[in-house]
Amino acid sequence: MKIDAKFVTSAAAASDLPRGGLAEVALVGRSNVGKSSLINALVRQKLARTSGEPGKTRLANVYQIARGSAAPIHLVDLPGYGYARGLRQAQAKKEPAFDEIAKAVFARHPAALLLVDVRHPGLESDQSAWQWIAAEAADAAIVATKIDKLARGERIRAMRQLESVYEVPVLPVSAATGEGMDELWNLIDKLANPAHRNSSSRPHPNRTARPLPNLRRR
Q1: Strand partners of residue 113
Q2: How far apart are CA 124 and CA 27, in angstroms?
Q3: Measured between alpha carbons, how far is residue 196 from residues 143, 178, 188, 190 in Å?
Q4: What is the DSSP letter of 49?
Q5: Domain total for the chain?
Q6: Which residue of 90, 185, 197, 200 sits 20 to 30 Å from the alpha carbon of 51, by its own alpha carbon?
Q7: Strand order in 111-117's β-sheet?
Q8: Is the residue at 214 inside a domain?
Q9: According to the model, what pLDDT value does residue 100 have?
């Protein structure tokens, strides 16, 4: 199936985010969870820049993606959280912190995917991020990255632990092997399509936005 994907913009503030009415799905995760690699595996091209230095990117990178005859959507890759060095570098360069750009993106009520490293289930920072995302996003789901790093028995235990901690289904994927990419496309389509959304997870239009939790810890 044909996949169309292109880079749109890097956003430091709400004014930098694209307008045009496309559905949006935000990617949220720790700095070393492998978001860029996952995007590249998803679209089958080197679209997102990967870095050997976690926490280096402090902007929200927006991509327009579409598969087959489906309508295009915006995939909004938020900067990673939980990496102190990257945060210090951002402050020195007067770049936006994760908190600032995340608030700007979620003010638009996108759907969201929380990416967690399957080898580290139940991290406090990930749990805090999920609680906030589940309350603020139009709809949300959890994806476990790097499943290829675990042997069969280990992955079964890790997935059970993840689903026990978060109390929702978790999709295992691997950017390295391509495992779970079709399922991830289906999940993104479900999140981006209002007709498929679970209305119970949508933010109430009159609800006061919750403060973003402290996600700076590793």
Answers
A1: 27, 141
A2: 18
A3: 18, 25, 11, 5
A4: P
A5: 1
A6: 185
A7: 3-11, 60-67, 73-77, 24-29, 111-117, 140-145, 170-172
A8: no
A9: 83
Q: Is residue 83 part of a domain?
A: yes
> Cβ neighbours of residue 57 under 8 Å, at least 6 residues apart?
49, 51, 79, 80, 86
- First CA to last CA distance, the chain: 39
Residue 109 lies in a domain: yes
For the chain, counts of helices (H) and of strands (E): 6, 7
CA distance 32 to 54: 5
Is residue 210 domain-resident?
no
Tokens of 131: 């609680």
Q: Average pLDDT by consecutive 10-residue portion of the chain (218 residues)?
A: 96 92 95 94 92 65 96 95 53 58 93 97 93 94 98 97 97 98 97 66 45 56
Domain that holds residue 115: 3-198
Q: What is the pTM of this model?
A: 0.85
Specify whether the CB–CB gap between 63 and 5 falls below 8 A. Answer: yes
In this structure, the number of other CB atoms found within 10 A of the CB of residue 64 comes to 17
* pLDDT recorded at residue 200: 37
Beta strands, E only, the chain: 3-11, 24-29, 60-67, 73-77, 111-117, 140-145, 170-172
Q: Which CATH number fits the domain that encloses residue 188?
A: 3.40.50.300
